[in-house]
Write a structure and sequence with these properties.
The protein is of the alpha/beta class and 214 residues long. A hairpin with a 5-residue loop joins strand 14 and strand 15. Helix 2 runs antiparallel to helix 3. The chain is globular, with a radius of gyration of 17 Å. InterPro entries: Glyas_Bleomycin-R_OHBP_Dase. This is Glyoxalase.
């Protein structure tokens, strides 16, 4: 009976919430409201510490370069630090900022030219976990009930998200993710992020904690 219950819970698992652990929730709430992403994340007071790269980033996919600039500008006005100025690349246009609480955000579009004015609309929010072994961690999550939507060998894997999931989950090689963000890959201490799940609590191979979503 216990085995059947576990299998059923794993089969219905999804990413239900993303909670950032911050020193000052009120200040963080003001920032994320100004940035325009407050409806996608939760905040929790925490005195946990970390140094260097926390091992993840949150990425916003938007419609065009002007909208990228709008989000990056709003983040800067609210106190964010620019890690990579918004610029064109082979895959599109994007930039990277770090919130006052230390969380790194990437804002990007696959479009290289605007087809309309800037908006404040977000097409997709993706949580990228930097992991040591993408294939092994992918199998770990598959074993807990997630479905792989896209996978590129040992470099990247993306999971299908449920209708109620505010954020899509993906895995990226840790060093590759840090390089993409323009920062060193080294880091110690807490990830300072907790993921909400429709299944029971667990911790993945890279130390990312999941808890039962409220």
């Amino acid at each position: 009976m216990a085995m059947a219950t576990t299998t059923s819970a794993a089969a219905t698992m999804s990413l239900a919430s993303v909670t950032l652990e911050v020193a000052d929730p009120e200040a963080a709430h003001r920032f994320y409201t100004a940035f325009g992403v407050d409806s996608h994340i939760r905040l929790r007071a925490s005195e946990s510490h970390s140094t260097g790269f926390r091992g993840f980033t949150l990425a916003l996919t938007v419609s065009g370069p002007a909208t990228v600039d709008s989000f990056v500008g709003a983040a800067m006005d609210a106190g964010a630090t620019v890690l990579k100025p918004a610029a064109k690349s082979l895959w599109g246009y994007g930039g990277v900022v770090q919130a006052p609480d230390g969380t790194i955000w990437k804002v990007a579009t696959s479009a290289k030219k605007d087809t309309g004015p800037a908006t404040r609309e977000i097409d997709e929010v993706v949580l990228l976990l930097g992991v040591e072994d993408v294939k092994a961690t992918k199998q770990f999550y598959v074993g807990r009930g997630l479905t792989v939507a896209r996978s590129f060998g040992g470099k990247y894997a993306e999971f299908a998200s449920g209708e109620s999931s505010p954020v899509k989950l993906a895995l990226y090689k840790r060093r590759g993710l840090a390089k993409d963000l323009g920062i060193p890959a080294d880091g110690t201490g807490s990830h300072r992020i907790v993921l909400g799940t429709t299944a029971g609590p667990f911790t993945d191979p890279d130390g990312f904690a999941w808890e039962a979503a409220a």
